[in-house]
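Supplementary Methods, section 5.1.

A reviewer requested that the exact input to the structure prediction be made available. We therefore reproduce it here, unchanged from the version used in the analyses.
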Amino acid sequence: MYVKYFYIILWYIFSMEISKIIGNNLKEARKFKGLTQREVASQMKMTQQQYSRFENGVFQLNYEQILFLCDLFDVTPNELFSIND
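The structure derived from this sequence is encoded token-by-token as follows.
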């Protein structure tokens, strides 16, 4: 039983680390395009605070948001999800 919880905790930690890496990639792509969080959030029809949570790895993107941001930032999903920096 404890092993099950151990793996759940490991998965959660790994998931949070991936979210932070993706958030950092979002931030770099946004800055490279010369956009502010407020500008991106406006295009996504959300507040700057909501968008900020993606860049901070608190919230995870859904498929539609991933595709929208890749198009906006002129990056591929592979570049956005790259963890080999």
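Helices lie at 2-32, 37-43, 48-55, 63-73, 77-80. These observations are discussed further in the main text.
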